[in-house]
């Protein structure tokens, strides 16, 4: 009877989640191949069902099938799609609505939600992050991540790529339980130690038809490959952030997207296999309550077993509250630029020089500085000229960016009609963020501000005696571009729609125009490296999908140096040692070159050279997360995520968002003091003293008690309180500062945010 009552209470929850909109594209595609495809409609729909664990006298499969009407559908398909034992106890099955209703009434049923389709959300970046091969420093002292297993849920992997050669990589640790699936096309070795597919019935191998999984895998843990480039651009030695670590690929995505049932199956297998880090470069377009979010539920199980889960913040920025994968137990990664530009300039005759970028740089050797008439039409600002050669032939056209398929089509028509070139200007939303794409030769992309200068030149000279004219100069790869890093326009922004009292995203990492491994069958440029054996290609793409494996690689380095640290301790070490300034020492800027707030950058830009020696960490345990969930979502949702009867809400305190022992601090902006408590653990020198340093604007008052923390041994914990009061000035909704604990060269920095209207405490 108790089970039936519980089921009755869950029915409104089931009907509610069925109304949620389907996720949209969150991966910044390099071309128009990756797109959402509507699946063929059927009366059967895959549902993910959580149930009580089977009794000891029963097998999991028999227990799952006891909830189903029969084992086959009317068309002869197997009803049972996936089974889960690690992320939770349950299964994914094909059910019609009436059958789902019957399942919810069976004893042992816990909850269910429909399968959703999510979307797939470096030669120089290690050096940009301060990692230098062969030099004394953290990269070398951490063994380049040796002994750590990085699992990726993605679109597969091109196993023959030289980035996955195992030279210099030791055998996997004895605790590793995974393998390459029988019949898989993957070539496993000491680098690539696991490869399994959870799509297409699991029998299509782990080949990568999207390129995404190959790119992210090599970014996180690819081996050193000399002579890497993309058509000669971004040339150098390619390497992942943890080139000594092992890679395990769990294929859960195809070109059309990633079903949540497959994602959970991959998570389940990765936990069983024994990965140390899970890198998940995918997500939806909106954030769901955590008990209805398969990634959040599965990630909680992984974290509770010691696995660090790193996820993309999503590519729906710069809109506020566009961040996804925002559960506090997940390390959520935003995307920023690096100090490398693929420079191509627009030279305006009798006008200014305008800097831009181009992914395809083909120089005209016969007449390199030949001038062409420059044409811009306000009425055809997106270059809807079709193939009318009488208008466009022999001219450089100025076009404003629109949606990618339209851009590709319009530019192709222009070049086919004889246009001499195209200047593609960013939309106002993109600002200074240039996501380079392969539009073909003769196309230069420029920022919004540069586009304003060019269009002003084109329209003003039209009214003068001299005609507007221009030519392109291609300068290949330029290092030292400034400002850097900046936040990419597409990067998902906070505050979290689900838990605004916890700062999200967590961290900023390189995600704009990143070069990494690519499957040769997808037709990108082959590297000149003789070591590639004809199978090593590289491509440049962008997204929080690219920022995520950079951070996963940093996690692997820290885990290699500190194998006994908890996931929360590793996250804390990365957040509190991050950079709050750019390479010039000024504030990190956003896509409009305004000062970026913490809801764009998180704690700051990742700095791996400091992350392994943070001094202090803010640790969190499963019971603390459980108490937070009790306050945030209530008993039933907490039980769905935590699934531990000894941690029921009746036995736990309710921990408000502000009081969660997170390494960042978010409180309401109010004139009376609001006080939070934090506890830090000493992971630095045994005998050490830390002094509080507060850096806040004049409109904010922050008091820390005690102002000094004295430690006498490693592992010792100290608790302190932070009281914040203030008021908004100049219409600000968020007033931001920081609290740092300083001991010699060790600086443990936490952003402090006071947010107007935050009344959830």
TrEMBL record:
Domain Peptidase S8/S53: 145-591
Residues at the catalytic site: 154, 212, 545
GO MF annotations in UniProt: serine-type endopeptidase activity
Organism expressing this protein natively: Miscanthus lutarioriparius
Chief localisation class: secreted
Signal sequence segment: 1-26
Family: Belongs to the peptidase S8 family.
Record-annotated Subtilisin-like protease fibronectin type-III domain positions: 659-753
Protein name from the UniProt record: Uncharacterized protein
Domain Inhibitor I9: 65-120
One GO process term, biological-process aspect: proteolysis
Top-level taxonomic group: Eukaryota
GO cellular component, as recorded: extracellular region
Keyword field: Glycoprotein, Hydrolase, Protease, Serine protease, Signal
InterPro entries per record: Peptidase_S8/S53_dom, Peptidase_S8/S53_dom_sf, Peptidase_S8_Asp-AS, Peptidase_S8_Ser-AS, Peptidase_S8_subtilisin-rel, Peptidases_S8_3, S8pro/Inhibitor_I9, S8pro/Inhibitor_I9_sf
Record's subcellular location: Secreted
Entry-linked Gene3D superfamilies: 2.60.40.2310, 3.50.30.30, Peptidase S8 propeptide/proteinase inhibitor I9, Peptidase S8/S53 domain
């Amino acid at each position: 009877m108790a089970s039936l009552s519980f089921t009755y209470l869950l029915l409104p929850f089931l009907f509610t989640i069925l109304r949620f909109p389907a996720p949209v594209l969150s991966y910044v595609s390099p071309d128009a191949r990756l797109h959402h495809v509507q699946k063929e409609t059927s009366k059967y729909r895959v549902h993910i069902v959580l149930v009580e664990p089977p009794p000891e006298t029963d097998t999991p499969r028999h227990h799952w099938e006891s909830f189903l009407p029969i084992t086959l559908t009317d068309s002869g398909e197997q009803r049972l799609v996936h089974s889960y034992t690690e992320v939770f106890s349950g299964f994914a099955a094909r059910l019609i609505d009436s059958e789902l209703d019957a399942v919810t009434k069976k004893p042992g049923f816990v909850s269910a939600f429909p399968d959703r389709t999510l979307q797939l959300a470096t030669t120089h970046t290690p050096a940009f992050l301060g990692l230098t091969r062969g030099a004394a420093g953290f990269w070398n002292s951490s063994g380049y991540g040796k002994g750590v297993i990085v699992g990726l849920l993605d679109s597969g992997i091109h196993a023959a790529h030289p980035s996955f050669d195992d030279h210099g990589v030791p055998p996997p640790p004895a605790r590793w339980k995974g393998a390459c699936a029988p019949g898989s096309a993957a070539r496993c070795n000491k680098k690539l130690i696991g490869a399994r597919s959870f799509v297409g019935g699991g029998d299509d191998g782990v080949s990568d038809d999207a390129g995404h999984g190959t790119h992210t895998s090599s970014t996180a843990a690819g081996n050193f490959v000399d002579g890497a480039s993309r058509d000669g651009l971004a040339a150098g030695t390619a390497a992942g952030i943890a080139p000594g670590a092992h890679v395990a690929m769990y294929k859960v995505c195809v070109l059309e997207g990633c079903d949540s049932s497959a994602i959970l199956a991959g998570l389940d297998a990765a936990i069983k296999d024994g990965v140390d880090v899970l890198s998940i470069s995918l997500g939806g377009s909106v954030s769901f309550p955590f008990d209805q979010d398969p990634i959040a539920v599965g990630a909680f199980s992984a974290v509770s077993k010691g696995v660090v889960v790193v996820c993309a913040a999503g590519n729906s920025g710069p809109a506020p509250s566009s961040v996804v994968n925002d559960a506090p137990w997940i390390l959520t990664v935003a995307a920023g630029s690096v100090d490398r530009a693929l420079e191509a300039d627009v030279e305006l005759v009798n006008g200014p020089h305008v800097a831009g970028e181009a992914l395809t740089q083909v120089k005209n050797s016969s007449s390199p500085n030949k001038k062409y008439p420059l044409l811009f039409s306000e009425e055809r600002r997106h270059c809807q000229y079709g193939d009318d050669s009488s208008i466009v032939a022999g001219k450089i056209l100025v076009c404003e960016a629109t949606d990618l398929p339209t851009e590709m089509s319009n530019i192709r028509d222009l070049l086919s009609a004889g246009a001499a070139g195209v200047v593609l200007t960013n939309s106002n939303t993109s600002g200074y963020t240039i996501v380079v794409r392969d539009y073909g030769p003769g196309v230069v992309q420029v920022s919004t501000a540069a586009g304003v200068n060019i269009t002003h030149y084109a329209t003003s000279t039209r009214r003068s005696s001299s005609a507007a004219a221009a030519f392109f100069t291609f300068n290949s790869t330029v290092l030292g571009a400034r400002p850097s890093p900046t936040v990419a326009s597409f990067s998902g922004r906070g505050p979290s729609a689900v838990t605004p009292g916890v700062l999200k995203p967590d961290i900023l990492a390189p995600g704009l125009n990143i070069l990494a491994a690519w499957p040769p069958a997808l037709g990108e440029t082959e590297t000149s490296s003789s070591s590639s054996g004809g199978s090593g290609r590289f491509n440049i793409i962008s997204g929080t999908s690219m920022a995520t494996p950079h951070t996963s690689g940093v996690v692997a380095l820290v885990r290699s140096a500190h194998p006994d640290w908890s996931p929360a301790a590793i996250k804390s070490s990365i957040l509190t040692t991050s950079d709050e300034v750019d390479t010039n020492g000024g504030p990190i800027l956003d896509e409009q070159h305004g000062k970026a707030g913490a809801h764009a950058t998180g704690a700051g830009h990742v700095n791996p050279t400091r992350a392994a020696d943070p001094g202090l960490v803010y640790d969190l345990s499963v019971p603390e997360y459980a108490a937070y969930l009790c306050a945030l979502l209530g008993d039933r949702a907490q039980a769905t995520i935590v699934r531990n009867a000894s941690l029921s809400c009746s036995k736990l305190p309710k921990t408000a968002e502000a009081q969660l022992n997170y390494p960042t601090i978010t409180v309401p902006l109010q004139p009376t003091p609001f006080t939070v408590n934090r506890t830090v653990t000493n992971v630095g020198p045994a005998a050490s003293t830390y002094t509080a340093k507060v850096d806040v604007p004049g409109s904010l008052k922050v008091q820390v008690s005690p102002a000094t923390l004295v430690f006498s041994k490693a592992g010792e914990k100290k608790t302190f309180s932070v009281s914040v009061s203030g008021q908004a000035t100049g219409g600000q909704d968020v007033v931001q500062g920081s609290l740092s604990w300083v001991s010699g060269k060790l600086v443990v920095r936490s952003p402090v945010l006071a947010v107007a209207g935050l009344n959830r405490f």
